[in-house]
Amino acid sequence: MAGSTRCESEVVAGPGGVTGDLTIRTEAADDDTQAAQVQVQYTGAEEWYTLTGSPIPLAGRSVEQLHQAVLRAAAQGADDGVSADHLPH
What we know:
The protein is of the alpha+beta class. It has one helix spanning 63-76; strands at residues 6-13, 20-28, 35-42, 49-50, 56-57.
């Protein structure tokens, strides 16, 4: 897989579900599934949580492109919380 296989960024989550300052990590799966694991933590906390629906198929996207889609979805927020279902395919 070309490019980075791991991205990590901070974002302020929008309304709905988890809110506040978050750190989001998107990392290519260790196998050949062409998917990425997405994890979230409250910035500065020790615990990481797996995004519902993860691992997420890359579907022709790079890890960086998927990571940016996750960041946008988290910043926008969702009444029922952000999950893999909120990401464009």
